Amino acid sequence: MNKVDNNDVFTASARPAAAQKEDAADLATLRLLNAFDTEAGVTQRSVAAELGIAVGLVNAYIKRCVRKGYVKTSKAPARRYAYYLTPKGFAEKSRLTAEYLTSSFNFFRTARGQCGEVFEQCVALGYRRLVLCGVSDLCEVAFIAATEFDVTLLGVFDPKFERDSFRGLKALRQFDEFGQVDAAVVTAMPNSQAMADALLAHLPAERILGPRMLRLGRNPPQAKPR
Q1: CATH topology identical between 18-85 and 113-214
Q2: Domain spans of the chain?
Q3: 3-class secondary structure, 178
Q4: CA-closest candidate to residue 25, choices 92, 78, 102
Q5: Which of 11, 32, 158, 145 is nearest to 83 (CA)?
Q6: Is residue 55 within 8 Å of residue 45, measured between CB atoms?
Q7: How do the pLDDT tens digits run along the chain, 226 residues long?
Q8: What's the half-sphere exposure (Cβ side, CA atoms, 13 Å) at 3?
Q9: What SS3 class is residue 84?
Q10: Does domain 18-85 bear CATH number 2.40.30.170?
Q11: CA-to-CA distance for 142 and 117, rounded, in angstroms?
Q12: How far apart are the first and last CA of the chain?
């Protein structure tokens, strides 16, 4: 494991907000194209339910895809429309799929390395009893990375998570219910800074850590001299 730079744990650059918004739009477009390619007779309402977004937003994405030549429509009975991918749409779906898979792999590799840095820092500081804060893809990676270090994950804290467990860990909506906690590892994405700020009601700032990619607005603590 590479040596942790104490002054750089929270300062690595992340993708700008505009780029993240574009990524989200590309992912929604990919899921929309997949739906039209694999399902017959899909409706805007069914697509909205599958994607977890408003029907109006689905309509906007469809219009964008039609305008770009990815999708064509035809009238169906009962004032409904059928949606079909064009050759250009199939090509765009392939491009977005390859881009998404590459991005996912890069995210996993980067996140795992940075989570490892955080857990290494925790061990150096004597923080063993940890809580992951925020259910997300980053939380999944942190859960995996933690197995390589002498730390104990007490569970996952997320006020908005409705289940009682996450990957076999107990999931709680009240941080105080974890009992004695040495440190909190922020894994919320997005709203990571809001999570870190909320944790200040339970722990001092030096015990709230997170991967560099989150760019949390606090410096990490210095390791105790050996």
Answers
A1: no
A2: 18-85, 113-214
A3: helix
A4: 92
A5: 32
A6: yes
A7: 333 333 333 333 345 555 556 667 777 888 888 888 776 667 788 888 877 778 888 888 889 899 999 988 877 665 567 788 889 988 988 888 888 777 788 889 999 999 999 999 999 999 999 999 999 989 999 999 999 999 999 999 999 998 999 989 999 999 999 999 999 999 998 889 999 999 999 999 999 999 999 988 754 444 444 4
A8: 4
A9: strand
A10: no
A11: 11
A12: 18
* CATH code for the part of the protein at 113-214: 3.40.50.720
| DSSP per residue, 33-46 | HHHHHH-SS--HHH
| Beta-bridge mates of residue 209 | 185
Distance CA 135, CA 206 (A): 22
Helices (H) and strands (E) in the chain, counts: 6, 8
The neighbour count for residue 86, using CB atoms within 10 Å, is 15
Tokens standing for 179?
């009992």
Full DSSP string of 85-126: E-HHHHHHHHHHHHHHHHHHHHHHHHHHHHHHHHHHHHHHHT
CB atoms within 10 A of CB 73: 13
208 token code pair: 């709230």
**What is the phi/psi pair of residue 132, to 5°?**
-85, 135
